[in-house]
Amino acid sequence: MTNKSLSLRAKRALPGGISHELRFREPHPIFVDRALGAEKWDAEGRRYIDFKMGSASQMLGHCHPAIVEAVQKQAGRSIFSADCHEAEIHWAEWINRLYPCAERTRFTASGTEATMLAIRLGRAWSGREHVLRVDGHYHGWHDQVLKGATPGSGQAASLGIPAAIDDLVQVCAADPRAMESALQDDRIGTVIIEASGANYGCVPLPTDTLRALRDVARRFNAVVIFDEIITGFRWSPGGRQARDGIEPDLTTLAKIVTGGLPGGAVCGRAEIMELMNNATEREGFAPAVSHKGTFNGSPLVAAAACAAMPLLASGEAQAKADAMATRMRDGMNAAMVESGISGLAYGDSSVIHLYFGRGSPDTLTPAEIRGLPKAQVRAYRDGMLAHGVDMMSHMSGLTSAAHTPDLIDEALGAFRATLSDMIRNGAFE
Prior knowledge:
The protein has helices spanning 3-11, 53-56, 65-77, 86-98, 111-126, 163-166, 176-182, 198-201, 207-219, 239-244, 270-273, 299-313, 316-339, 366-369, 374-386, 405-424, and strands at 32-36, 39-42, 47-50, 104-108, 130-134, 169-172, 188-194, 203-204, 223-227, 250-254, 264-268, 343-346, 351-356, 389-390, 396-398. By secondary structure, it is α/β, with parallel strands linked by helices. The chain is globular and about 65 Å long.
């Protein structure tokens, strides 16, 4: 089968032929057949160096032997029975040990469900319904987090979101003074922040600013949620909060926390998390905060996660990924200088962001950074893919513990070739 023929078949079975809007690509997406380490192969047998890495979930690399073995063993014992099991305890103990804010952990079936649950907990604990979020930060796709997800827009990024829900969500800039002003509204009891800065750090959030935002929210007795779905186990074994010493009330996790399988988690202060304890009754509700979910902490996911935890806890995987991302960013910057192109490759930890144009990401708004011409963005992503390198959506990518210097240098060759193609085709005019 070819990618084209599979796409035609998919369009007859799936809306738009895809299961996630960011997988859309014209004239058709690639259909991946297998992946190993930091590489993957499509249905036509074509190889790609992967900087998407399962939307940041495959920190250890695709099909890591320990993960594969754990899933295979568990599949022979119990795939799913909707019961409690020992592995979920072991998994939660790892998270509680590694994350400063974590006194209790509850598992969910996705990162979006994690932020949905964390916001419910924040509202229940504070007794206030309104939520404050930061412009351009991303927290999943449920109704309560789409207002403000598109930088510079005060609207939800989708039809079908009731105005009554939008009215419960306020948006402010990533600035302590802006947050303090917004929190004058005493209806706000919960603040949610993407710990990296907007869109896994494409708009960097300096450590002092993150700490100041946390402190401002605390002064107003708001429940502080750090969304560490990308930064968790990537910035450090204990996420950004452990690396930089900034502790929230609640943390949302997904992707790496599951060993790269579907799922997520909320962890945080015991007094807030215990609102989900069936023995906790408030205002006639027991538990005070309801949380269900058939596949929460499923045995297969827990087996993968428990296999991953020791490999992630040492920090060696993060150090390898960080070093390879630094090599890639440095090489991209050198290539742009050589080609006479104004731009910057930047990012924290193992993330790679690319911006074409003058100005620094430290001074540009989320809308400006995400506002590059669509034709230019497409020329870059399509060019890299044509040269055998798959990047994440927009102008970003990330590394894993499986990336090597040889793979990075090969990818830099593809980057130089892509720049040449873009110059020749007038993408920078």
